[in-house]
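Posted in: Protein Modeling Q&A

I'm a second-year student putting together a small comparison for a lab meeting, and my supervisor asked me to include a predicted structure for Histidine kinase. I've never done this before, so apologies if this is the wrong subforum. The sequence is pasted below exactly as I got it from our records. If anyone can share the structure token output, I'd also love a short note on what stands out.
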Amino acid sequence: MAKILIAEDEEVLRMLMVDTLEDEGYDIDEAADGQEAIEHILGTDYDLIVLDYMMPAYSGLEVIDQVRNHHGKSDVKIMMVSAKNQQADKDLVLAAGADYFMSKPYSPVELMEKIGDILNG
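Accepted answer (user: helix_wrangler)
Welcome! Here is the predicted structure, written out as tokens:
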């Protein structure tokens, strides 16, 4: 099954995402901030990284920059989730190197569908 990193600073939301994905059989790691996310990424090959836009230590955009431009992980799929859902924010996220953008709030069903679509091409 696919290996996924969930980087989300809101504990309740992170736990909901992790529980939902584990129930579907995905192998999940979790990070509470951008620094922890980068540490996981350096040590593990992920099929998908799900990043919150606004996190302590490093923002989701800064994590994308590290992944894409400094750590040779250009092939991993990245999905950004954010309450910042203006078109300019979405454009910035995609230009930074994210493959997908999902606006908060979202339902667990919507999350599962999007992740399934990403991982299944």
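A couple of things worth pointing out for your meeting: Residues 69 and 81 are 21 Å apart (CA to CA). Strands lie at 3-7, 27-31, 48-52, 77-82, 100-103.
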